[in-house]
Design goal:
By secondary structure, the protein is an all-alpha fold. 72% of the residues lie in helices and 0% in strands. It contains 10 helices and no strands.
Length: 198
């Protein structure tokens, strides 16, 4: 039986923790590189950004499709998990909704180049859109319902409509440095407010 390491972790458990940290580092680096260079960026650039060797990336993600899918899913999960946390800590449900939408916009901006990949024939990408809706629509609904119940916004806004509208506002960002979708999204959110809401 193998002896535990001085930290109290078994060697295999330590290796698994290192592998998980490497995977998270690669996902974060890939997301950053995708923002500036799209999903076809050289793997060596992602490896350099992550501070790992290319073999480490290929060990976790044997194909580019594996990497793109994992980045997309990782960001969806982070956005989904943020909703309930923001609702518990923000000053009001509307503040939580506004902060969550800011994260959602970050996600859409980071998704630069993923839209083309998602429309490819690769089957790995086929289920991502459904996964995106399955994970994020309930979170948006939770925040909208809480904001309505608190009297912050008018009832009747559908989560899908709001998310789709925000997505459409983000589309114009590519190729136009003068266009700031966040300004229009702020106006959109202001339009949801009840006239008597503070």
């Amino acid at each position: 039986m193998a002896a535990d390491s001085p930290t109290g972790e078994s060697p295999s458990r330590g290796k698994r923790a290192d592998a998980q940290r490497n995977r998270e580092t690669v996902l974060a680096a890939a997301a950053e590189v995708f923002v500036t260079s799209g999903v076809d960026a050289p793997i060596r650039r992602i490896a350099a950004q992550a501070g790992v060797g290319m073999a480490t990336i290929y060990r976790h993600f044997p194909t580019r499709a594996d990497l793109v899918t994992a980045v997309y899913q990782h960001q969806i999960e982070a956005c989904a998990e943020a909703g309930p946390s923001l609702l518990a800590t923000a000053g009001s449900p509307f503040d939580a909704l506004r902060q969550w939408i800011d994260l959602f916009v970050d996600f859409l901006v980071t998704k630069h180049g993923l839209a083309d990949a998602l429309q490819s024939d690769n089957e790995r990408f086929a289920a991502l859109h459904a996964y995106f809706l399955d994970r994020l629509l309930p979170v948006c609904a939770l925040l909208l319902d809480a904001s309505v119940e608190a009297g912050d916004i008018r009832p009747g806004t559908e989560p899908y409509e709001l998310m789709r509208g925000i997505g459409n506002l983000c589309v114009g960002r590519d190729g136009d440095p003068r266009y700031d979708p966040r300004r229009l999204i702020a106006l959109l959110l202001q339009g949801l407010r009840r006239p008597d809401a503070s």
